[in-house]
Amino acid sequence: MTGPHVDVAEEDKPLDPAVERVRRKLVRFVAINLGLLFLALMAVVGALVYKARTSQPSEAVASSDIQMPAGGQISGEIVLPVGSKVMSQALSGNRLSIDAELADGSRTIFLYDIAERRVIGQFAVRNR
Fold first, then answer.
1. Which of 47, 68, 70, 109 has the maximal Cβ count within 10 Å?
2. pLDDT tens digits, residue range 1-29?
3. DSSP per-residue string spanning 13-49
């Protein structure tokens, strides 16, 4: 099948002045909107670059105060109350969080600093 037949001479004819004005307005509208979109995109990229260059490194990345012994292992002791069970643990930088169930059935979260080798916080977990 062939498409609609368009006369070559009809394509070369200039547009009606009213249609030409609308076409020019449309081209100007598209050009202005693309320019504004480009400026907004450059502002976002500039803000991301600025934020990446001026942000301070996080404490977890910056804290390299843990001294590794010659054997390559850190050893120590974390003292929990007698009869407690460790339910879970999480490590973030040089801080260790230990979720423990105490002998009386209550739950407590202990926050341990590996560099200082001491418990720096204890949080009771209760239901309201």
1. 109
2. 566 666 655 667 777 889 889 999 999 99
3. SPPPHHHHHHHHHHHHHHHHHHHHHHHHHHHHHHHHH
Name the amino acid, one letter, at 105.
Answer: G
Give the contacts of 73 (CB within 8 A, at least 6 positions apart). none
Among 66, 73, 79, 72, residue whose Cα is nearest residue 114: 66
DSSP assignments along 55-94, one per residue: PPPPHHHH---PPPPTTS---------TT-EEEEEEEETT
**C-alpha–C-alpha distance, residues 101 and 80, integer Å:** 10
The pLDDT, as a whole number, for residue 15 is: 76
C-beta separation of 86 from 98 below 8 A: yes
Q: Is 113 exposed, middle or buried (0-12, 13-18, 19+ CB in 10 A)?
A: middle
What φ, ψ does residue 116 adopt, rounded to 5°? -85, -15
> Dihedral angle at the C-alpha atoms of 121, 76, 72, 113, nearest 10 degrees?
10
